[in-house]
Amino acid sequence: MMMRNNGTGRSVTAASLMVALGIIYGDIGTSPLYVMKAIVGGRPITEFLVYGALSCVVWTLTFQTTLKYIYLTLKADNHGEGGIFSLYALVRRYGKYLVIPTILGATTLLADGIITPPISVASAIEGLTNIPGLEKLQTVPIVIVLLSALFFFQRFGTHKVGSTFGPAMLIWFMMLAVLGLVQIALHPGILKALNPYYAFRLLILYPKGFWLLGAVFLATTGAEALYSDLGHCGRNNIRISWVFVKTALLTNYLGQAAWLLSLGTNATLAGRNPFFEIMPQGFLLPGIIISTIATIIASQAMISGSYTLINEAMNLNFWPRISVIQPTELKGQIYIPSVNTILWIGCILMVLYFQNSTHMEAAYGFSISIAMLMTTFLLIHFLRYQLKWNKYLIIALLMLFSIIEISFFVANVAKIKERWMFLFFELFIFLTMYIWYYARKINNRFIKFIDLGKYASDLKELSRDNTIPKLSTHLIYLTKANHRHEIEEKIIKSIFAKKPKRADLYWFVHINRTEEPYTLTYNVTELVENTLIKININVGFRIQPRTELYFKKIIQTLIAEKEMNLDKLASGLTKYNHEPDFKFIVIEKFLSVENEFSFREGILLKTYFLLKRLGQRDEKAFGLDKSDVAVEYVPLVYQKAEKFELVRECKRDMP
Amino acid sequence: MKTDTSRILYDRYFRLANRNIEIRLKNGTKVHGIIVGYFSSDADNAESPIHHWHVVDVKGQSCWDFCGLRFEQGALIKHCEIAAITFEEDNSTLFL
User: ipTM of this predicted complex?
Assistant: First the structure.
């Protein structure tokens, strides 16, 4: 059994380029809706400001998006998959400390993801107020209804409408380019702004010019999401389609800037959005409809990206297990109800709190600047240790991106006062990931592996001992032991201690989470003839394990191929019962009262077990059918309380 | 990268036919017996270092290395406290 995603090797066709347009560029592609408006704000419009701002946008898209993400970061594909967890899976062997930037990057990406749908949809809908007669239109209810509908329909998947995303975004980008070109033709002098000197001059000489970077940064916020979606399209498709997308974006930014200059020196925007102002009056309504569709597609990409991020976090043991649903048969398409609800509530609260896109712009971007810094940190490890790039080149790249991203981060710090409520949300995500990861590590340190060979004859004897009532024909344990000659001590205790569990056949199933995203392979070893079989199932970190389904499929194959004498064993079938007799034993830990903790370990472990209770149960997480499962509870004795003196008062008189 | 001596010992030990060993600790103490179990630093990772070995003196004991009240028999030895291991099979010594 093997499924592989060969994202990087995907051939470049018109259809695949269209898919890339529909999935990858939603976020970055809808930035022209608000970037120029955010940069200019209420400032007097001057050539100094407009040329400088435009130059900043152009060179940000060149260095940050094209060089860092399109050229460098897309090299870090993990068997075709991208995103911060894929990158972590590639570099984690090079340092334990890489866990922290990974958690921080994922946290901040998720947090700012909550503003992406409201800011995009609100910006588009606010365009309606440009239509004569609709100036006083209340846009908040429309935005809330659109976003709520978007979150409601997530449970049905996007397979039916997904094919329209590409053509819709193609229309969007063509609209951007045409609208921009018209304005450039009217004011060709705007092309001067491509000179980086204007950017430099703005940042150094314009009053408080450096802080404008907080708004300039909005032009590149979608770059991180672009990398996360690598698996959907493949590197080559992204790189080729980016040429078209970047051209369309730059043309539109140039057009908006040209229109700004046409207002004359020291004019102000006075609430107008240059994006809609460059549209001919007769095109306004169709333009707003196209913009709204584009922003819904952008929001969809962000929502799907958040599901993928949490799913990867779960599979890499950064997040408690929660219910994941596959709404369609499409590979990689998942729906996580709890994440959907949190995002929906978060987005609606954002709309209600900020009311309009201008206020959202003032809060957007801070977290993504941290996510980008963290990606740079991990990327440097990838380039150095996996691609073995020259260390001087690596240092040069590190310095270049550190200067750019730290500048953006500092400029964005000013946004904290507008987004303080996000800090709680970010703290919650960060702590959940941190606690889950490190408490699990502590937990794992106390799993004792023993030599299975010592118990082989006892197992065989128990299996044939008719004096003990049979629990099941097939008894299945899930084990973490990678090596075939060993097993967890708790499993041996479960079989032999107190009332021994007799079965005809004992199965030890090991789920090995691989660093490759879509691996699904297995191997079977008969450790004791007709008594003990071990199965290793290799499951990629993007796949939700369905242990029972895999197990039954493997048994079917073994029986069909008459391997290991399975056909000679009692199957458990009787004339009253037509189903094979399987029993899964899941061993769950609880924190023993015998423990004595240090402060940090105590907090970590107690919160871990609390989160575990709130999350999905082990049997469900492993994809086991409840009727075939027995759960046993064993105490986790982390630090035995041994420093006590138990004194016997007097010896009892023996008869 | 630092060499993980615990996995060297692991690989060598589980290839032995005669698993009797003598462990010499850094404080000079000697422990005889067989390794019946171990704890690694991360059970999710098969290559993670082993931090404790469970050693049982085989003479006079059954194969069970725990009693009914969950008190373990034998000794738990920290890997970092081991100075050398002598393997009875070929009388060779592994210095850590």
Answer: 0.81
